[in-house]
Design brief:
This protein is an alpha+beta fold. It folds into 3 domains: 62-157, PAS domain (Beta-Lactamase, 2-Layer Sandwich), CATH 3.30.450; 161-236, Helix Hairpins (Orthogonal Bundle); 238-395, Histidine kinase-like ATPase, C-terminal domain (Heat Shock Protein 90, 2-Layer Sandwich), CATH 3.30.565. The chain contains 10 helices and 12 strands. It has helices at residues 2-62, 81-87, 98-102, 105-112, 159-194, 201-232, 245-262, 281-298, 345-350, 357-367; strands spanning 66-70, 76-79, 121-127, 133-143, 148-157, 241-244, 266-271, 276-279, 304-311, 317-323, 372-376, 382-388. Strands 2-1-5-4-3 form a 5-stranded antiparallel sheet, sandwiched between helices. It is elongated, with a radius of gyration of 40 Å. 23% of the residues are buried. Bound molecules: adenosine-5'-diphosphate. Adenosine-5'-diphosphate binds next to helix 8 and helix 10.
């Protein structure tokens, strides 16, 4: 009996062991499989995270705006490529403070005052280093466990917009001033005539002549303003064609001969007869007109103006207009091409100048791909130069 029981017990024990071992093996296999799957999922998640990080930095670096992310202690966590460019930063700046990296007190203070709540604060920042620029900054504090956590700042370079805005304001102020002066003169003379001066035919004739001059000045100003605004709109196309230069110059000289002789100024052209340029004829006539007219207005009474042209040998034709008047001081040599800049305001106004003639010259020459400049020895005259592309006439 005991023997049977012992055998039975042994058999049961063996069976239980076998079952347990099989199950254990299967459990082991299962655990192994789960571990492998876990590793695969982790690797995939890691790849995805790496890809997401990569995508995020590619996105930040492709932004035109500069991005700066700082932690709660205002230490740099991240900057993008545009930010580096704006502040001319080299090397790793991670972990450094705003002050240490950018030396901008104003920015440091603004970041310190950023509210913890996700409200976007907008402010303007002027920097002188690495260059003078105006930056519009949008900053947002990212809420942390206790108060503000990190903060993100986006920098937009608005220097060009500011510059254009200032130019626009100056332009409007200048135009208003230019219009107001002749208008108030006209009004003043008309009032004096109405107050009784018209009783004298001589005074009336003199005043009417002055009124006509001021009205002419207004007309010239409006014509020049229209020309400059159409040139600046960039919508003007130059009707370029190969033309002989000498006849263009002759046409302008014919127009200005009377004005020149009214100041006893002799005007001569010294141009090779077959010199050809590729130009918009009408526009280049206007350039020549403005330069020769200035020579007559500002040159020496009884003096001489020479219009010359030569091929430079560097694939350009150089045209010059020289006078023997008072010339232009060195510090004004570049500025005379700015709108409304005048060396001698009184003389310009007296001569009916609009202050736009040389700005128009510069626009037209540049639209032809050329350059314009002035050389002058004060007291000995001024020579205005401009370059054009040569052209060849088809026979
Ligand atoms: P404006 O209508 O006043 O002549 P411009 O743009 O043609 O305007 O010229 C700008 C200024 O440059 C003039 O007001 C004058 O002071 C100076 N300028 C131009 N040409 C000459 C010149 N040939 N000699 C001396 N000064 C000149």
């Amino acid at each position: 009996m005991w023997v049977y029981l012992t055998i039975l017990f042994a058999v049961v024990a063996v069976v239980v062991q076998v079952v347990w071992m099989r199950r254990h093996r299967r459990l082991g296999q299962l655990v192994g499989r789960l571990r492998r799957e876990k590793e695969t999922i982790e690797a995939a998640l890691h790849d995805q995270r790496g890809e997401a990080d990569h995508r995020q930095s590619a996105l930040f670096d492709s932004m035109v705006e500069g991005v700066l992310i700082v932690d709660a202690r205002n230490r740099i966590l991240m900057v993008n490529a545009s930010f580096r460019r704006l502040f001319n930063l080299d090397g790793d700046v991670t972990g450094k403070s705003i002050m240490e990296t950018l030396r901008l007190h104003e920015l440091q203070e603004l970041v310190e005052r950023l509210p913890a709540v996700g409200r976007i604060t907008e402010f303007e920042l002027q920097t002188l280093l690495p260059r003078s620029q105006t930056l519009q900054v949008n900053a947002v504090g990212l809420t942390g466990a206790a108060g503000r956590g990190s903060a993100m700042l986006v920098f937009h370079d608005v220097s060009r917009i500011k510059q254009l805005e200032n130019m626009r304001k100056d332009f409007v102020a200048n135009v208003s001033h230019e219009l107001r002066t002749p208008l108030s003169m006209i009004k003043g003379y008309v009032e004096t005539l109405l107050d009784g001066a018209k009783e004298s035919p001589e005074i009336t004739a003199k005043f009417l002549k002055t009124i006509e001059n001021h009205a002419d000045r207004l007309t010239f100003l409006i014509e020049d303003l229209l020309t400059i605004s159409s040139l600046e709109s960039g919508q003007v196309t130059m009707n370029m064609q190969p033309l002989e230069l000498a006849p263009l110059v002759e046409r302008v000289l014919d127009e200005l001969r009377d004005r020149a002789s009214s100041r006893s100024i002799g005007v001569v052209a010294d141009i090779t007869p077959d010199l050809t340029v590729t130009v918009d004829g009408g526009r280049i006539q206007q350039v020549l007109f403005n330069l020769i007219d200035n020579g007559i207005k500002y040159g020496r009474a009884g003096g001489r103006i020479v219009v010359a042209a030569r091929a430079t040998g560097q694939g350009a034709v150089e045209v010059s207009v020289a006078d023997d008047g008072p010339g232009i001081p060195a510090e004004a040599a570049e500025r005379v091409f700015e709108r409304f800049y005048r060396v001698d305001k009184a003389r310009s106004r007296e001569q009916g100048g609009t202050g736009l003639g040389l700005a128009i010259v510069k626009h037209i020459v540049q639209a032809h791909g050329g350059e314009v400049w002035v050389d002058s020895t004060p007291g000995k005259g001024a020579i205005f130069f401009f370059t054009l592309k040569p052209g060849s006439l088809v026979a």
